[in-house]
């Protein structure tokens, strides 16, 4: 079985990260992870080996684009060229994957277990001071 062709969709992002973690597949913008063909475990980020059964029979697949906020923190101090404050946290996806990610929205309004969705976002600045495009999860409006 041939792996589906996934195209990087965040122009200007680290080409390796964009290629390895993001896709614009048949259902639109999504994180690119893996699923074990032996035990069914979903993985993100891609590892090449299933942590449950140790199989190397894993295939690329798009992750769900909606989840719930597990936890978050507001970052007030960061190395250059990051612009503070920003919010990072964990999002639980319905397939059992927990993603460490940037979180959008007003931190004062965030709540544990609130529904969130994936979206393209600019996070931080590159060495030339330009916005660094990537992804984040943001609460539904």
Please identify the structural class as seen in this structure.
mainly beta
Number of E-type strands: 9
Question: Stretches where pLDDT falls below 50 for ≥5 residues?
Answer: 1-15
β content, as a range?
A: 35-45%
**Distance linking N and C termini:** 40 Å
- Run of helices and strands: HEEEEEEEEE
Shape, principal axes of CA atoms:
globular
Q: In which order are the strands of the major sheet placed?
A: 7-6-5-8-9
Mean pLDDT: 83
What is the number of helical segments per DSSP (H or I, 4+ residues)? 1
Main beta sheet: strand number and arrangement?
5 strands, antiparallel
Instruction: Kindly give the count of domains.
Output: 2
Helix coverage percent: under 10%
C-alpha Rg (nearest Å) = 16 Å
Plain-language structure description:
The chain has 141 residues and is mainly β. The protein has two domains: 15-62, no CATH class; 66-139. It contains one helix and nine strands; from the N terminus they run H-E-E-E-E-E-E-E-E-E. It is globular. Residues 1-15 have low confidence and may be disordered.
Which characteristics define this entry?
about 140 residues, mainly beta, five-stranded antiparallel sheet, 9 strands
Question: How would the blueprint of this fold be written?
Answer:
Elements: H1 15-21, E1 22-25, E2 28-36, E3 42-43, E4 58-62, E5 66-75, E6 86-92, E7 98-102, E8 115-125, E9 131-139
Antiparallel strand pairs: 1-2, 2-3, 2-4, 5-6, 5-8, 6-7, 8-9
């Amino acid at each position: 079985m041939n792996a589906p062709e996934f195209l990087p969709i965040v122009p200007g992002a680290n080409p390796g990260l964009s290629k390895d973690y993001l896709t614009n597949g048949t259902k639109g913008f999504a994180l690119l992870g893996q699923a074990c063909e032996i035990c069914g475990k979903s993985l993100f980020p891609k590892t090449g080996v299933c942590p449950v059964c140790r199989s190397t029979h894993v295939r690329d697949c798009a992750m769900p684009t909606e989840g719930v906020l597990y936890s978050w923190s507001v970052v007030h101090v960061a190395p250059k060229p990051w612009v503070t404050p920003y919010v990072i946290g964990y999002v639980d996806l319905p397939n059992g994957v927990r993603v460490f990610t940037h979180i959008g929205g007003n931190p004062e309004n965030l709540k544990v277990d609130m529904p969130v969705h994936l979206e393209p976002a600019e996070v931080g600045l590159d060495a030339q001071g330009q916005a660094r495009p990537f992804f984040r999860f943001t609460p539904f409006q």
